């Protein structure tokens, strides 16, 4: 079945550091890929998405590129801020069904 | 529109009791989803509705769980004879069509003592 694997946390970085959170997926067909973010005390928010191979999703300085050849969708940001501290979930959905499959999440701590 | 809302935000109950949660989707969203998130894990799909029809149920949804969306608007999720393993965050989401973005509510955190 479809699944998502992302790097385990927590990840702790200093402010202005470069961020990469790895995500790989297993899916039949051509899924849509997502990164969701969950800030402390808040609900899940869609951060960015990509719907086909080589698409790049971007938002708030975060980027991720849909790599079909490596079945990956790694999240990157060039310079993180304290306000980026949150839990990040990689996820996919397929055309065959409308449910979202989430990874386990990666907790990110940014130190000032 | 204020987004997806869920009530209550927190629920503490004793093992064996029944609980019911409510989800109000974004108005005019036809599709409504329930997910469950346990500590340290990502959300897991439970069930979804197209209008009032329940189209799919996960094997996670045991016989003690029932979900309804009687008028195609709000939805309820009931858990009968709660167990400690039911302790989790229950998330609701809605979307306008198949494959479109799902908007999540803040969740209901259930603690079974």
Structural features, described:
- The complex is a heterodimer of chains A (112) and B (113).
- Chain A is mostly beta strands and 112 residues long.
- Chain A is globular and about 45 Å long.
- Chain A has strands spanning 3-6, 11-14, 19-21, 23-26, 32-38, 44-50, 56-59, 62-65, 75-77, 86-93, 101-102, 106-111.
- In chain A, the strands form three sheets. In chain A, strands 2, 5, 6, 10, 11 and 12 form a six-stranded mixed beta sheet that branches.
- Chain A starts with a strand and ends with a strand.
- The mean pLDDT of chain A is 94.
- In chain A, 0% of the residues lie in helices and 50% in strands.
- In chain A, β7 (56-59) and β8 (62-65) form a beta hairpin.
- Chain A is built from no helices and twelve strands.
- Chain B is mostly beta strands and 113 residues long.
- Chain B contains no helices and eleven strands.
- In chain B, β9 and β10 (103-104) form a beta hairpin.
- The chains are: A mainly beta (112), B mainly beta (113).
- At the A-B interface, β6, β10 and β11 of A face β4, β5, β9 and β10 of B.
Provide tags for this entry:
heterodimer; A: 112 residues; mainly beta; six-stranded mixed β-sheet; four-stranded antiparallel β-sheet; 0% helix; B: 113 residues; seven-stranded mixed β-sheet; globular
SSE layout and pairings?
The complex is a heterodimer of chains A (112) and B (113).
Chain A: E1 3-6, E2 11-14, E3 19-21, E4 23-26, E5 32-38, E6 44-50, E7 56-59, E8 62-65, E9 75-77, E10 86-93, E11 101-102, E12 106-111
Parallel strand pairs in A: 2-12
Antiparallel strand pairs in A: 1-4, 3-9, 5-6, 5-10, 7-8, 8-9, 10-11, 10-12
Chain B: E1 5-7, E2 10-13, E3 19-24, E4 31-37, E5 44-50, E6 53-57, E7 65-68, E8 75-79, E9 88-95, E10 103-104, E11 108-112
Parallel strand pairs in B: 2-11
Antiparallel strand pairs in B: 1-3, 3-8, 4-5, 4-9, 5-6, 7-8, 9-10, 9-11
